[in-house]
Specification:
about 140 residues, alpha+beta, binds coenzyme A, globular, 5 strands
Length: about 140
């Protein structure tokens, strides 16, 4: 598995993966989102390639912190193609995000996950992540 930064040509794959994550969208808006992320110094989107095919993605968002002197990093999204799960791709992606957070000198890397994503919770625990809180959200649109 090769982990690399996402590029414009990945739009179709990113759109497909987003659909599997539960955020179906057309390619056009996804292309716009990709562009915005690429312009953002605080963001990085990684994709995993296996045999030349994009089979997963993970994003990182770094922000200034009031609680720590250093920045904090959030895993902004992570998903592996249904046909490629349980093959180590998710691990490689999450390790890439952790590496990027370290490189950027972050004090902490964290993520939020929906209560219903029990499989993902097992995956995070397996990789040594600790469940430390709850997420509350309010939809504004
Ligand atoms: C969660 C997800 C990214 C994991 O990716 P993956 O490529 O299947 O995970 P890996 O194969 O790298 O697994 C790494 C370790 O976690 C374990 N693991 C993964 N999924 C697991 C599950 N559902 N239950 C128990 N253990 C699991 C693996 O067995 C493996 O352990 P090992 O290294 O000791 O063998 C993937 O299942 C997915 O895309 N799920 C749907 C989207 C989603 O829920 N994303 C998270 C949003 S918060």
């Amino acid at each position: 598995v090769l982990i690399r930064t996402a590029k414009r040509g990945d739009v179709a794959a990113v759109t497909r993966l987003l659909g599997q994550l539960g955020y179906p969208a057309d390619e056009e808006p996804v292309a716009r989102r990709l562009k915005r992320l690429q312009r953002s110094a605080a963001d990085e989107l990684f994709v995993a390639e296996a045999d030349g095919e994009v089979v997963g993605l993970a994003g990182i968002h770094v922000s200034a912190s009031l609680e720590y002197d250093e920045d904090a990093a959030k895993v902004s999204a992570i998903v592996v193609d249904e046909a490629h799960r349980l093959g180590g791709v998710g691990r490689a992606l999450l390790e890439a995000v952790e590496g990027e957070a370290r490189r950027r000198g972050c004090a902490l890397v964290f993520l939020t996950t929906a209560e219903r994503r029990k499989d993902a919770h097992e995956f995070y625990r397996r990789l040594g992540w600790e469940e430390t809180g709850r997420r509350f959200a309010k939809r504004l649109r």
